[in-house]
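User: My collaborator sent over this chain with a note saying "see what the structure looks like." That's all I know about it. Can you take a look?
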Amino acid sequence: MHVETRHFADPQVAARKLLELAAGVEPVNGRIHIEKINAPFLSRNGCKATGPEFGTGIQHAVERGWLELHESGTFVKLLPQGEDLLKR
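Assistant: Without extra context I'll predict from the sequence alone. Here is the result:
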Protein backbone atom coordinates (compact mmCIF):
# COMPACT_ATOMS: atom_id res chain seq x y z
CA MET A 1 0.00 0.00 0.00
CA HIS A 2 1.34 3.43 -0.99
CA VAL A 3 0.81 6.26 1.47
CA GLU A 4 1.45 9.78 0.20
CA THR A 5 3.49 11.98 2.50
CA ARG A 6 1.75 15.30 3.11
CA HIS A 7 4.44 17.97 3.18
CA PHE A 8 2.10 20.60 4.66
CA ALA A 9 0.79 18.29 7.39
CA ASP A 10 3.60 19.80 9.49
CA PRO A 11 2.14 23.07 10.84
CA GLN A 12 5.59 24.73 10.82
CA VAL A 13 6.08 23.96 7.12
CA ALA A 14 2.55 25.11 6.27
CA ALA A 15 2.97 28.34 8.26
CA ARG A 16 6.25 29.18 6.58
CA LYS A 17 4.73 28.63 3.14
CA LEU A 18 1.81 30.87 4.06
CA LEU A 19 4.30 33.55 5.13
CA GLU A 20 6.03 33.30 1.76
CA LEU A 21 2.72 33.63 -0.04
CA ALA A 22 1.68 36.60 2.13
CA ALA A 23 5.01 38.33 1.48
CA GLY A 24 4.34 38.09 -2.25
CA VAL A 25 1.01 39.95 -2.01
CA GLU A 26 0.78 43.74 -1.97
CA PRO A 27 -1.24 44.66 1.15
CA VAL A 28 -4.21 47.00 0.89
CA ASN A 29 -4.37 49.30 3.93
CA GLY A 30 -1.85 46.98 5.58
CA ARG A 31 -4.06 43.93 5.15
CA ILE A 32 -3.95 40.96 2.79
CA HIS A 33 -7.19 39.30 1.71
CA ILE A 34 -6.93 35.74 2.97
CA GLU A 35 -8.01 34.42 -0.44
CA LYS A 36 -4.75 35.77 -1.88
CA ILE A 37 -2.85 33.18 0.14
CA ASN A 38 -5.61 30.56 0.47
CA ALA A 39 -6.10 30.01 -3.27
CA PRO A 40 -2.47 29.29 -4.22
CA PHE A 41 -1.98 27.19 -1.09
CA LEU A 42 -4.94 24.96 -1.92
CA SER A 43 -4.90 24.96 -5.72
CA ARG A 44 -3.97 21.97 -7.81
CA ASN A 45 -1.49 24.14 -9.71
CA GLY A 46 -0.04 25.60 -6.52
CA CYS A 47 0.87 23.86 -3.29
CA LYS A 48 -1.90 21.23 -3.41
CA ALA A 49 -2.48 21.54 0.33
CA THR A 50 -5.72 20.73 2.11
CA GLY A 51 -8.14 22.92 4.05
CA PRO A 52 -7.08 21.46 7.41
CA GLU A 53 -3.42 22.07 6.51
CA PHE A 54 -4.30 25.69 5.71
CA GLY A 55 -6.10 26.05 9.03
CA THR A 56 -3.29 24.61 11.12
CA GLY A 57 -0.73 26.64 9.16
CA ILE A 58 -2.60 29.90 9.83
CA GLN A 59 -3.07 28.97 13.49
CA HIS A 60 0.62 28.17 13.87
CA ALA A 61 1.65 31.46 12.23
CA VAL A 62 -0.72 33.44 14.47
CA GLU A 63 0.45 31.66 17.63
CA ARG A 64 4.08 32.42 16.75
CA GLY A 65 3.33 36.11 16.08
CA TRP A 66 4.17 35.83 12.36
CA LEU A 67 0.71 36.70 11.05
CA GLU A 68 -2.24 38.54 12.50
CA LEU A 69 -5.66 37.19 11.56
CA HIS A 70 -8.43 39.79 11.45
CA GLU A 71 -11.41 38.91 13.67
CA SER A 72 -13.57 38.57 10.53
CA GLY A 73 -11.23 35.87 9.21
CA THR A 74 -11.02 37.61 5.83
CA PHE A 75 -7.68 39.39 6.21
CA VAL A 76 -4.21 38.68 7.50
CA LYS A 77 -1.33 40.99 8.22
CA LEU A 78 2.31 39.99 7.95
CA LEU A 79 3.90 40.96 11.27
CA PRO A 80 7.52 42.05 11.80
CA GLN A 81 8.48 38.67 13.35
CA GLY A 82 7.18 36.94 10.21
CA GLU A 83 9.08 39.33 7.97
CA ASP A 84 12.26 38.69 9.98
CA LEU A 85 11.77 34.94 9.65
CA LEU A 86 11.60 35.26 5.86
CA LYS A 87 14.92 37.13 5.80
CA ARG A 88 16.78 34.23 7.42
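A starting point for your reply to your collaborator: The chain has one domain: 11-87.
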